Amino acid sequence: MTKKNNSIREKILLGLELTHTKLIRTKKERNFVLVVSDEGKVVRVNPKNL
Questions:
Q1: Structure confidence at residue 1 as a pLDDT band (50, 70, 90)
Q2: Which residues partner with 41 through β-bridges?
Q3: Positive or negative CA dihedral for 9, 13, 16, 18?
Q4: pTM above threshold 0.70
């Protein structure tokens, strides 16, 4: 990868981390269940456990 591509990749990863944090915070505040896929199976997770 070139230096420019690495910079863009880092920004995308930081954005994904920020989005993940906001999602978990929102789910905790509203007391909603978080639904994720784990090896092809649907798993419901209580966000308070994260």
A1: low
A2: 38
A3: negative
A4: yes
